[in-house]
TrEMBL record:
Record field: compositional bias (Basic and acidic residues): 1-13, 33-53
UniProt biased composition (Gly residues): 56-66
Residue segments, region Disordered: 1-66
This protein's name: Small EDRK-rich factor-like N-terminal domain-containing protein
Domain Small EDRK-rich factor-like N-terminal: 1-35
Domain of life: Eukaryota
InterPro entries (alphabetical): SERF-like_N, SERF1/2-like
Species this protein is from: Leucocoprinus leucothites
Family, per entry: Belongs to the SERF family.
Length: 66
């Protein structure tokens, strides 16, 4: 065993490269759908945060820590 673990490292690299080549590319239609879905989720989060912010500000600050 004059090569040490080089053979194992090369084998692992080859497996990783082969796994990346097997992954199908994401189509443009799928990509845009995913982006739109993500954007809608973020908009919902922002609305919820704004509602919480306005609710806390209008409530007289009853739950603030000092």
């Amino acid at each position: 065993m004059t090569r040490g673990n080089q053979r194992e490292m090369d084998r692992a690299r080859a497996q990783k490269k082969a796994a990346q080549q097997k992954k199908p590319k994401e189509s443009a239609a799928t990509l845009t759908k995913r982006k739109e879905a993500d954007a809608e989720i973020l908009r919902a989060k922002q609305r919820k945060a704004e509602e919480a912010k306005t609710g806390a500000a209008g409530g007289g600050g009853g739950t603030t820590k000092k």
